[in-house]
């Protein structure tokens, strides 16, 4: 599914909600690649002295990665308050480089690509390549492993 020109609300793909939602929109998504936007606002709980801290960058990257796998589990009419189908978490960070911290008012653009995926009957294990940038300046890059456990299908 691609959405060039049409932004998709991330809530259709992730169970996260404010204040831990670190992605605003999916700009483009396919089964193995995603691009997301996140505007860093003053009320962000991981903002420190005007900058999104390192844990905020990692959480943003993990949520962007999760949206690739989440798209197979969440339909457009998904309502997280009624139906929680999956729980996911970072099972490992193979590599992480933080080059710069984005600041208040920056639009963080994060891209992730699925490197590998293993699906069990009620879980999925994935490896993702991901990077974040503001404009053309790269902020962070990582290789992340995610584990998603299905509650019910």
Report on the architecture of this protein:
- With 153 residues, the chain is mainly beta.
- It has one domain: Hotdog Thioesterase (Thiol Ester Dehydrase, Chain A, Roll).
- Helices cover 11% and strands 46% of the residues.
- The protein has one helix and nine strands.
- It has one helix at 54-70, and strands spanning 8-9, 25-30, 33-39, 47-48, 51-52, 86-98, 107-119, 123-134, 137-150.
- The chain starts with 7 loop residues before the first strand and ends with a strand.
- Mean pLDDT is 82; it is low at 1-5 and 75-83.
- This is ABC transporter permease.
Give the percentage of residues in beta strands. Answer: over 45%
Please tally the β strands and state the result.
Answer: 9
- Major sheet, described briefly? 7 strands, antiparallel
Helix content: 10-25%
So what's the oligomer here?
single chain
Q: Write down the secondary-structure element order.
A: EEEEEHEEEE
CA radius of gyration: 15 Å
Assign an overall shape: globular
Query: What count of helical segments does DSSP give?
Result: 1
For the biggest β-sheet, the strand order reads 1-2-3-7-8-9-6
CATH architecture: Roll
Number of structural units classed as domains: 1
The CATH fourth-level homologous superfamily: Hotdog Thioesterase
* Mean residue pLDDT: 82
The structural class is mainly beta
Protein name: ABC transporter permease
Pfam families: ApeP-like
Organism: Sphingobacterium pedocola
InterPro entries: ApeP-like_dehydratase (IPR016776), HotDog_dom_sf (IPR029069)
């Amino acid at each position: 599914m691609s959405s060039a020109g049409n932004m998709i609300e991330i809530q259709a793909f992730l169970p996260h909600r404010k204040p831990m939602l670190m992605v605003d929109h999916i700009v483009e998504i396919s089964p193995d690649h995603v691009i997301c936007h996140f505007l860093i606002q003053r009320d962000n709980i991981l903002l420190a002295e005007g900058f999104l801290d390192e844990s905020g960058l990692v959480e943003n990257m993990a949520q962007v990665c999760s949206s690739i796998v989440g798209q197979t589990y969440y339909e457009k009419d998904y309502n997280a308050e009624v139906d929680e189908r999956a729980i996911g978490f970072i099972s490992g960070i193979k590599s992480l480089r933080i080059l710069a911290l984005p600041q208040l008012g920056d639009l963080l653009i994060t891209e992730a690509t699925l490197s590998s995926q293993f699906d069990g009957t009620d879980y999925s294990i994935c490896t993702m390549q991901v990077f974040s940038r503001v404009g053309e300046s790269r902020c962070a890059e990582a290789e992340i492993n995610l584990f998603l456990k299905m509650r019910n299908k």
